[in-house]
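Hi there,

I know you've been waiting on this one. I reran it after we fixed the sequence typo, so this is the corrected version. Both the input and the resulting structure follow.
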Amino acid sequence: MTMRTIRPSIARIARIASVLVAAAACGGASASLSPVGNPVAPDAAIGGGQGEGQGVVDGQPAASGAPPITEDGVGAAVDDAKIIRTGTIQLEVTDVPTALVTARNGIRAMGGYVGASQTENIDDRPYATITYRVPADRWEDALDLLRGLDGLTSKVVSEQTAAVEVTGQVIDLEARIRNLRSSETALQKIAGGATRISDVLEVEQQLTNVRGQIEQLSAALADLQDRAGFATLTATYSVPVVAVDVAARGWEPGVVVDEATASLVNVLQALTTAGIWFAIVWLPLLLVMGVLVAIGVFVGRRLGLIGRRRSGDLPLPG
């Protein structure tokens, strides 16, 4: 039996290593998400007192209330939940430009920034929609800031907020990235011992695939961490609508004048149309009929058919 028959090829080893690590990476996907509305109590997370849930350091129980110590000496994080917060708030302010400056300065003081903005004028009334990125730990402070704006906010028309916990997704991505990096290291060692060109090419192909997965998962992890670290708050600013303006919207003098002028033009057009028809059509017909009637009367009198007394008619007395 030769060494060639005993030792599998390097390419086969690379395939087996990649399959095993890929399976381990996919196994990290089983991490589940915890609802934001049902957080685990800190006491439950650390064991709830000095019972069996406490960690042990150098043979001694850990201090009460401290997070448990794992085998690798790293304390479990009980308050490091990753939560993506988003919200919208619609405000009526006395002065839109001043409110925008006040809100921007306040958000910057909290460590946030303006992510997007849009301003416009509708019916000579200013409107603005601003998207703020606020540090997650200053979320409530940002809402309080916009609700007041140093007295510039006259009314909070609407407010909506949402929170989605992504702690499980973050842990899952981190575990998969670690496993893929282990796979990358193993493949690099295999590539260092490869002698045949076919083995080298196959290992390099596996390395390219693994590195592509690492880049993709790292980008997804960075996006989650960014959205969890900075909440997104979209605010809409407008000035209150005055009651006189609302009433005036139902009556516009210019529109009334236009409607009255249009009605007058319609009446004049109808009268003019009737006069034209009378002058061109009916007047000639009436003249012809009048001439014919006059001729008939003249001929009848000449022939005695008109104006002759009937027999038996008595003369009128006197």
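Quick highlight: The two ends are 171 Å apart (CA to CA).

Best,
R. S.
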